[in-house]
């Protein structure tokens, strides 16, 4: 029997996203990269820089998903509290990783390794370091929880260095058909297409493009042939309703 | 005694965000508008179009926050299941709102009011309708949960029509000082500034701009004078370290 596809959750740690100051810039990257590996992203949470909130989110999600990825809060400043929170999730102490300290010393030099920088070597006991190809300060993994930085460029480089550790799942095939029409005009026949293709998940996403409303209909599933058949059925349904599909569909996704 | 500031949570419902297909386009708007009203956004969750997942997120958050806002899943297609999920959260039935049906009939005309469109008039018993100034189909409110559409333009118009219902809180004052420096170079003195200004929350946000690393230091709090004093202390701390602040600070926020 094939094993179940692996699942994941993301926890974005940052007051600045919840205050509206900064748009999150990490979720879509992680969502896309996990999808490419056939890992199902089940949920994402955005929480404050508050230890109890981080603990509650990570602890709930790590029990339900194969992998949890956190972003943010592992820098050198006083508001970086993710490492302490993750230690508490696993009931272990924070300790100074000699290997992390060695990497920081290489990067900053002996004279530059001030106490704030050394703080980035404090990780939960039992953590495995994650390589930081950009700026030396490592992320870390405890159990099924991967703790990544919030700066997108560094987070991405670290993810690319770690993704080989992740169990891959069957890829999800996806086909999209878009048209300038309304959801409510096609909802009835679309439901019939969904009912006839139960192994495929059909999503309907309205968009506004150049002042015109349209709909992107997306078929997704593990069976690429079934997905292709569902996409053909969607196109036939539109044709029968006298609705032209948008040929250049790639940027109708907005 | 002043009452506690109101709190809020956001639940974004949409497979398309978790699959990486579409970036969320609603959270930052809600975060900013809630902040303007002095409402503290505590958490956001992004969940699948799965009834159990929607129920779990909304039910957990409505107990901890004064307001919960959901976006997505209230259109006419088969994958729009938010109304049914919210009904289950509150243990009530879905029923056809005559007022919602009337609004849809006005918009689409008798002939245009097909079953899919009428489905958008099905709301939980006891729900209060939320005006949709753009496309007639209403959102709704049950208890402290506001159910909004996912299309950003419509969600925004609906939020603007409802926000007068929300209890306002004391505004949060915010001051930002940025510089091309590293977090780890200033983390020590920054912590001292934080310790001397305990009523102000100081956040440190690294950024990359034109290939140079920098840091935005943000002081936030209810007491505008205290926030201003903390910002002056941050500027003085940078000056003492020989670090020039960025004068045109507005777009250093990236």
SSE layout:
The structure is a homodimer of 254-residue chains.
Chain A: E1 7-13, H1 15-18, H2 27-36, E2 40-47, H3 51-64, E3 67-71, H4 82-89, E4 94-96, H5 98-112, H6 115-119, E5 122-124, E6 128-130, E7 139-142, E8 145-148, H7 152-162, E9 173-179, H8 183-196, E10 201-209, E11 212-221, H9 224-240
Parallel strand pairs in A: 1-2, 1-3, 3-8
Antiparallel strand pairs in A: 4-5, 6-7, 7-8, 9-11, 10-11
Helix pairs in contact in A: 3-4, 8-9
Task: Give a structural overview.
The structure is a homodimer of 254-residue chains. In chain A, a hairpin with a 2-residue loop joins strand 7 (139-142) and strand 8 (145-148). With 254 residues, the first copy, chain A, is α/β, with parallel strands linked by helices. Chain A has 9 helices and 11 strands. Chain A has 2 domains: 7-165, Molybdenum Cofactor Biosythetic Enzyme, Chain A (3-Layer(aba) Sandwich); 173-252, ACT domain (Alpha-Beta Plaits). Chains A and B meet through helix 1, helix 2, strand 2, helix 6 and helix 8 of A and helix 1, helix 2, strand 2, helix 6 and helix 8 of B. Strand 2 of chain A pairs antiparallel with strand 2 of chain B.
Give the key terms.
homodimer, alpha/beta, Molybdenum Cofactor Biosythetic Enzyme, Chain A, Alpha-Beta Plaits, 2 domains, six-stranded mixed β-sheet, 9 helices, 11 strands, elongated
